[in-house]
From TrEMBL:
GO cellular component: plasma membrane
GO molecular-function terms, A-Z: G protein-coupled receptor activity
Ranges of residues in domain Receptor ligand binding region: 64-348
UniProt topology in membrane: Multi-pass membrane protein
Signal peptide stretch: 1-22
Name assigned to this protein: Receptor ligand binding region domain-containing protein
Subcellular localization: Cell membrane
TM regions (residue ranges): none
PANTHER family tied to this protein: METABOTROPIC GLUTAMATE RECEPTOR
Keywords (A to Z) from UniProt: Cell membrane, G-protein coupled receptor, Glycoprotein, Membrane, Receptor, Signal, Transducer, Transmembrane, Transmembrane helix
Length: 372
């Protein structure tokens, strides 16, 4: 029953509160409950040094979707009677190191909660109201990308905590060793099949690939190579892999390599959204406007990143194609999101630190009185 409720919650997050006092910081948003669900969400992208940098509007949408889903569950008297769900949302900035630090904190909190429930600590509990509030992390939603999910899933597997992702698509996560991992999206082999169908439709026979140097990128390219081997209709000329940190120099060399292969006009991109934008910026700097790009789902879903490019760079992506998961509009969530966005201008909301970054990125400051 619990796993089904978590899947419901994760489905809502992929589309995109009874509020009590909680904890809010730059990288954490916590609201207590009888049962606590953790979350690892990308609210910032990483820069070349692996530090949090550009704000992600999509990440804020995921936070609000989780708030909305939990509020909906808490308000429904037929789902969890006399039980309130809480949440502990962490921003990991697409950094596997930060994701693991947050995950270790989740696991450690569970160990402490277990200790305080032990009979040896009954006496201490009676005199410590703060410790009475300890509730273990029952499941974790996320992380956003497969590279982080591999590491997080391994640790949570040992701790026997379910991990439910709304966007981690690597086939590696289908392995039996990740028996505590669940997801609401299909694995990348199906995405590779769709890409191969597009390549065949246009009779492209020679393609290259640029991918993340992690489970998402390498397993995605491997699936595409498998399709090429089965069909014998196109050839994968070469694949370049981009590291998650210290990637600027590698991007420059990758574009130079693509330019040197003048017979390769189609490039498959299995990149996270922020890395794709920087690749296009480098391609524009090197005057490479004659390629057709095929985006993986991560880049297609991250259209906001392409809008951050300077106008003179955007010509690089003209004529590109992308694979996108089928999605559905949830009108009552959209209504909720509009109300939350307006409220964030009028008052200090619990997630105010992130909303402030959103408005700073989207538009010049607006006086709250204009929205009353």
């Amino acid at each position: 029953m619990f796993v089904n409720n978590c899947v419901l919650l994760s489905v809502v997050v992929s589309y995109g509160f009874q509020t009590s006092s909680g904890t809010t910081s730059k990288d954490r948003y916590h609201v207590p409950g009888d049962i606590t669900i953790g979350a690892l969400i990308t609210l910032h992208h990483s820069n070349d040094d692996g530090e949090c940098s550009d704000f992600s509007s999509a990440g804020l949408g995921h936070v609000e979707a989780m708030k909305f889903a939990i509020d909906t569950i808490n308000r429904n008297p037929h789902l969890l009677q006399n039980v309130t769900l809480g949440y502990d949302i962490r921003d990991y900035c697409t950094s596997t190191v930060k994701a693991m630090k947050h995950t270790y904190d989740f696991v450690r909190k569970n160990e402490l909660a277990s200790e305080f429930q032990n009979a040896r600590f009954v006496g201490a509990l009676k005199n410590n109201t703060e410790q009475k509030k300890r509730t273990p992390i029952t499941a974790v939603i996320g992380p956003t990308d497969s590279g982080a999910a591999i590491f997080v899933g391994s640790l949570l597997q040992v701790a026997e905590i379910p991990l439910i992702s709304y966007s981690a698509t690597s086939d590696e996560l289908s392995s039996p060793q990740y028996s505590y991992f669940f997801r609401t999206v299909p694995p990348d082999r199906k995405q590779a099949r769709a890409m191969a169908d597009v390549i065949d439709y246009f009779n492209w026979s020679y393609v290259a690939a640029v991918a993340m140097d992690d489970s998402y990128g390498r397993n995605g390219v491997r699936s595409l190579e498998t399709e090429a081997g089965k069909r014998q209709t196109f050839c994968l000329s070469f694949a370049d892999y981009i590291p998650r940190e210290k990637y600027i120099t590698k991007l420059e060399r990758t574009v130079e390599k693509l330019r040197s292969h003048s017979n390769v006009h189609v490039v498959v991109l299995w990149l996270l959204r922020g890395y794709g934008r920087r690749l296009f910026e480098e391609a524009a700097k090197q005057k490479m406007y004659d390629r057709t790009w095929i985006f993986s789902d991560s880049m297609t879903a991250g259209g906001e990143e392409l809008m951050k490019m300077k106008d003179e760079y955007k010509g690089v992506v003209h004529g590109s194609l992308g694979i996108e998961l089928r999605h559905f509009d949830v009108q009552y969530f959209q209504d909720f999101l509009i109300k939350e966005s307006i409220k964030s201008l009028q008052e200090e909301s619990a997630s105010a630190p992130w909303w402030k970054e959103f408005w700073k990125q989207k538009a010049p400051p607006v006086q709250p009185s204009n929205y009353r």
